[in-house]
Specification:
The structure is a homodimer. The first copy, chain A, is mainly beta. Chain A has a single domain, classed as Porin (Beta Barrel). The first copy, chain A, contains 5 helices and 14 strands. In chain A, a hairpin with a 4-residue loop joins strand 6 and strand 7. The interface between A and B is large, with 51 and 50 residues. Chains A, B: This is TesB-like acyl-CoA thioesterase 3.
């Protein structure tokens, strides 16, 4: 049989022109009011991913505030979002020389067309490019095998049940040491680590870091719990513009108790910078 | 000389009747509006302590919301508070069966009597007493010497300059391993650990945990930096009602870069429970 002609890879998407950008773009209806059709492409087990939603809110706030980059953003998740029409309402809380603070709400519509609040956010924005270059980080990147020795959803023998369109949007390669759950043998340790990128090749930027901290499988899976682990609250610190290339995301849970757990995420870029840190509080169903 | 008659110790203050309670009480003026005179007793180097302010906001939200305890509370610090008159304005964002979410602002008055916002907060409240007893915490209490081998401000040969009335309100005994800064020999490690309580003996409760996470000297001192380290944002998770007796607070900084640092605090009670976790983003002056 003749060899199949090799198909050239599609060009890597660029920041500003990619799936992530198209699916997080908000249209300003009037000052402080932005419309969006939430994409069905970022769902995990039928729920719209919380990090994708945070990026949508982050984009609206970047338009509202005089500073471009989220430095610290705290989100309280109120009701479950659905793909479809939504509105983001923003408010400037305070503007300063190097930092500004804003508030934002993501709302959708009930059957009568009334607005129902999904998420409320407080965030302080600055300019990452204006920060001094001083780096005294004592944290170290996670010990992880090279990407070629890690595994993504397409390598998995047991697909996660339910619609998980987000896996088609991501380049996700999990550390085998945190993959036991997918093979019926969870480690019992609250850890999840992966190489992370966007499937269309778009490099990371401060807004996509908001997605990255919430885009891995739950640490609860490795602890041996199944089912949904909804986020109650998520705070992300964005500390540096990420370098081009894949990210490493390392998540740890140390305090599973009383039906709640925390997930601490660190995001490291290809230059070994700790570009983002986050902590979320999530609910678990025990037993 | 005759022996001095021993003076009996004053009775330990009770939760609800203590310096902390009196200085955080808010008076409801009307639904969602609370007045308070911010005490000068909780200042550190002339700044009103951020944890004390968070406890004030937390008390107002506990009155507004149908659930009694802060589960996760995120505060963005906008302008510096001063002792004196202030108002807290609260809003119910959503009420649910086990969790409710609220928003609150602390405001003071400028020379013309206009309100100036000091802090804005989002918080989700629940009922700690209603949580199941399941504890699978893998974190361990910090290794610290017993309290008798730790040191408080009165033991220090070099008092911290500036008015620090808060030190009279607290029982603070620092781990000698994190005290080098007070002797001109900072360790270079971003760590601060202390036994913590209230000077009048009041036991801890969920609201005083909001104070505890922000009441130690800055880790920046041990890194060798001096000067003010103002909090930009602080998120606290309260995970369990603390047992009576002293707390252990352990704070770590691992990402000092670009003029900012994070402080991660863990609060352990006398029953070795991890009762609170927090992370704040703070600004540093480098060099």
């Amino acid at each position: 049989m003749p060899e199949a002609a090799s198909v050239p890879s599609p060009p890597r998407a660029a920041i500003g022109d990619s799936e992530f950008d198209r699916d997080t773009v908000v249209t300003r209806r009037e000052p402080g009011v932005y419309d969006i059709d939430l994409s069905a492409g970022w769902t995990i087990i039928n729920a719209v991913n919380g990090g994708y939603l945070l990026a949508v809110l982050g984009r609206a706030l970047a338009d509202t505030l005089p500073h471009p980059d989220p430095f610290t953003i705290s989100a309280h998740y109120l009701t479950a979002s659905q793909p479809g029409p939504a509105v983001v309402r923003t408010e400037t809380v305070r503007t300063g020389r190097t930092l500004s603070t804003g508030q934002a709400s993501l709302l959708q519509y009930d059957d009568e067309g009334n607005e129902v609040e999904r998420i409320r956010v407080l965030a302080s924005y600055g300019d990452l490019a204006a920060l001094p270059d001083d780096v005294r980080t004592t944290a170290a990147p996670p010990a992880m095998p090279p990407m070629e020795q890690c595994f993504g959803p397409d390598d998995s023998p047991a697909p996660v049940p339910g619609s998980s369109a987000i896996t088609d949007r991501l380049m996700l390669k999990l550390d085998p040491a945190t993959l036991g759950w997918a093979l019926g043998a969870p480690s019992g340790k609250g850890e999840m680590r992966a190489w992370f990128g966007l499937a269309d090749g778009r490099d990371a930027d401060p807004l996509s870091l908001l997605l990255a901290v919430d885009a891995l499988p739950p640490t609860a899976f490795e602890i041996g719990l199944s089912g949904w682990v909804p986020t109650v609250e998520l705070t992300v610190h964005v500390r540096h513009r990420p370098a081009p290339g894949p990210l490493r995301v390392s998540i740890t849970t140390r305090n599973l108790a009383g039906g709640f757990l925390e997930e601490d995420a660190e995001v490291w870029d290809s230059a070994d910078r700790l570009v983002a840190q986050s902590r979320q509080l999530a609910r678990v169903r025990l037993g």
